[in-house]
Amino acid sequence: MHQLVTFLFTFIQLQTQIIELLFLMLVGKNFTPKADTPIDKKYHKLTVDPLPILGPLPITKIYDYDKLLMDFKLKHNKELKPIKYRGKNIPPAHLTCPYCGAPHGYFYDNNGGKGQYLCKVCNSTFFPFNPSKDTVIHCPFCHCALEKIKERKDFDVFKCTSMNCSFYKKNIRLMSPDQKKLFAKEPYRFKHHYIYRKFHFDFVPLSKENSVLPKVDLSSIKVSHHVLGLILTYHINYGIPSRKTAALMYDVHGVKISHQSILNYTRAIAPIVKPFVDGFEYDLSDSFCGDETYIKVNGRWHYIFFFFDAVKKIILSYNVSKHRDTLNAIKAIDSLLSKLNTLPDNLNLITDGNPIYLLAQQFFAQHNINFDVTQVIGLSNEDPVSKEFRPLKQIIERLNRTFKGNYKATTGYGSEPGSVANVTLFVAYFNFLRPHSKLDGNVPAVIPKLNSLEHMPAKWLTLIKMSEEYIKSKQPA
Q: What is the pTM of this model?
């Protein structure tokens, strides 16, 4: 009996191995269900240092021309005579030495007419203009030239490698004894040197060239105006998918229309509504927060970059992209800044811990556009900053949930233009047509012409008409 049990147990183990082998041959090794959400990786901690000194360092006068001439006379018992020029490379008459202030007549041509001069009084060499070589980037703390250490997709990383830099010494001095021990073993865990990132983007902030007005063409829409208003009300306001909207139009209103026609209508209307949404003169507060949320387009994860007025409840940025990178963070912030009449001195943007917003802040600073970025990290208040600004982070999260309430019924978008169109129309609905409880039942952006209408289809049609008029008013005659 014991031998029989042993044989059966061995046989079952062999069967199990054969089944596992056949299963792997059938479905492959990577048989894991797709995640409902993107993989959430922890962000690397990032700090942004002050801007560097671009170009040659400013020359400060360190000698006194008159004193040097007097010292020369006392030492040699004769005066230092000016140079008698005989060649063709004569220095300009207005030229003075930046180191001692010596006038024209005391400069040698030091490199064969290529622009460098040698001062006879203080023996210093200098260029009266910037050489036409690549711009040298200097550390703002020690004035040493920065070295390029890495090349990223969006920027090059420059580093000050000087051990005598005051920035480096200060960071070393502030380390705890335990950190110093770890630093001796694993220095790559710490950032002590000055770092600068030079971006590759060909993007001009706050430029009118960033937005292009579309042509007004609604010839593809073959239904009546009222039917179009009903379709937008069901599909956008209530988040009903296109197939169910088509069925609803037939079952309730007796209008036979395909779901593809509904998608085509939204794609035709969205480009017309977008300039009106982006160019409207909003009454804004000074409290702004931003975040990304994810959607699926053609089975792949895409991201929407929202920026939101937390007080007025107005969506100011809604960029859709397949990449969660610095350039899209820059475009989202640029969309927000373009809606401000003047840039406040104390502008502060509240975001999550994604480092792309700090990089975007540095990009704008390089264009003399300055603002603060406060990052609320994690789900719990582990520091005073998170505790103070957590409510703003929760507000943008609620906006994400509101959008997802409309999005989830669609189970994703079939094309990128379709996703952009749906998001654009959702923002138009949210800003102009959706009452908000925090605003006493009013819409975020009040337009009296819309509020006077009795039902939602008429409001949609009026909004489209106003968008058409806005585009025509902005186009050249």
A: 0.76
